[in-house]
Design goal:
Elements lengths: L23 H8 L6 E4 L6 H18 L3 E5 L6 H9 L5 E2 L10 E5 L18 E4 L12 E4 L6 H11 L6 H15 L8 H10 L5 H8 L5 H12 L1 E4 L2 E8 L5 H9 L7 E8 L2 E8 L6 H9 L3 E5 L3 E7 L5 H18 L8 E2 L3 H9 L1
Parallel strand pairs: 1-2, 1-4, 2-3, 4-5, 5-6, 8-9
Antiparallel strand pairs: 7-8, 7-13, 9-10, 10-12, 11-12
Bound molecules: manganese (II) ion (MN).
Length: 367
């Protein structure tokens, strides 16, 4: 029998599978090849992970398939850093309420899943692909392409992986948005990050604009930000290892998360929750300093049929529609949520202890 040149002779080489492994990004692009245009959608009040993911995938589709793309904004962008990202990187967003859908186009959803109540675009529009990392399950029936990685810190990391697989170094603005998207999703402690998030960060860092990144991180804040923080701290209560801030009016809904990020650093607690009124909704945010906290699941069970909630292991968000925004009606909803929260965390019903004692608050006012 003839021997090939690399036959080790006598020793059987390890069998190596000959079929070429299809990359996930190849399958993603394949699903979009017949579309006239690709439109990217995400959740309401898009955050950096949503914005960066849409920008990264739009660049991938434009480069590999030479197709026109649109990226969208569902509702206003609240947080100052997120608005700074859009302004600084000159991101062009189409308002999802104003879009006219073309039957030949493909819709790709990022950082969210269909029918989770987190979007306002028409439910009848078919979705071709979903890329997400949330624990909150959506209705994926009939979606041809699904890439959901619950162990990954950011959807932007999955998108960066697609770019790596296709050997595409993204332009500065896209790399900056992707990097900031990963940063915002993985900066808590304990870290909710995987090896893929670190790999994506290393890939994106050289291509990103570090000055613009610093400008976004340090976005200037309006006076309403400080007023809200002050009021929130004045109605913050400690129940054993839980701290809850019953913020009153939130000028923008993302402030609930900002209050939580601030409170979870309090050394005497493991859980932080903020609930504040925005329009006719009670916006909820939760954080945990524990590993395996299942915050998304916990908030979902607390909110139950009162509204909707979901998220990650240590971070979660939710929303309860208020029948009335009269203070007594809001207090009633808050009391029910507090009761359920204490029960879920196995904390005995107790009077909350103020973070800032009332006596001090009054003294400061008089001084
Ligand atoms: Mn995300």
């Amino acid at each position: 029998m003839a021997r090939s040149a690399d036959d080790p002779g006598g020793v059987r080489p390890h069998s190596v599978p000959v079929h070429r492994r299809t990359k996930t990004s190849d399958r993603f692009l394949d699903e979009l090849k017949d579309a006239t245009r690709v439109t990217f959608v995400s959740h309401v009040h898009p955050d950096p992970d949503a914005l960066g993911s849409m920008m990264g995938l739009a660049h991938l589709v434009e480069t590999c398939l030479c197709k026109p793309t649109r990226i969208t904004r569902d509702g206003p962008i609240g947080r100052a850093e997120n608005r700074a990202l859009v302004d600084t990187l000159h991101v062009e967003l189409d308002s999802v309420e104003m879009l006219i859908w073309d039957p030949g186009e493909a819709v790709v959803m990022v950082d969210s899943q269909p029918k989770t109540g987190r979007h306002s675009f028409p439910r009848a529009i078919p979705i071709t692909a979903v890329l997400d990392h949330h624990e909150t399950p959506g209705d994926l029936t009939g979606v041809p392409f699904v890439d959901i990685r619950r162990n990954v810190g950011a959807t932007c990391s999955i998108v960066a992986k697609y770019l790596m697989e296709q050997d595409i170094v993204p332009p500065k603005a896209v790399a900056t948005a992707l990097l900031y998207g990963i940063e915002t999703e993985t900066n808590g402690y304990p870290r909710e990050a995987s090896a893929l998030d670190d790999e994506a960060t290393i890939f994106l860092y050289p291509a990103a604009d570090k000055n613009k990144l610093a400008k976004i991180r340090n976005a200037r804040l309006p006076i309403s930000h400080f007023e809200t923080l002050l009021l929130a701290l004045q109605s913050t209560f400690i129940y054993d290892r839980l701290i809850v801030s019953w913020a009153s009016e939130l000028p923008q809904p993302d402030l609930a998360a900002e209050v939580c990020d601030f409170l979870i650093r309090f050394e005497e607690v493991d859980w932080a929750v903020c609930a504040g009124v925005h329009g006719d909704n009670l916006i909820l945010s939760a954080r945990s300093a524990l590993s395996d906290a299942n915050a998304g699941e916990l908030l979902r069970s607390v909110v139950g049929r009162m509204g909707r909630a979901g998220g990650h292991d240590r971070r979660a968000g939710g929303c309860v529609k208020l029948a009335s925004t009269a203070p007594s009606a809001v207090e009633e909803v808050q009391a029910e949520l507090r009761r359920r929260l204490l029960k879920a965390l196995k904390i005995d019903e107790c009077r909350g202890q103020r973070l800032v004692p009332l006596r001090e608050l009054l003294q400061n006012l008089q001084g």
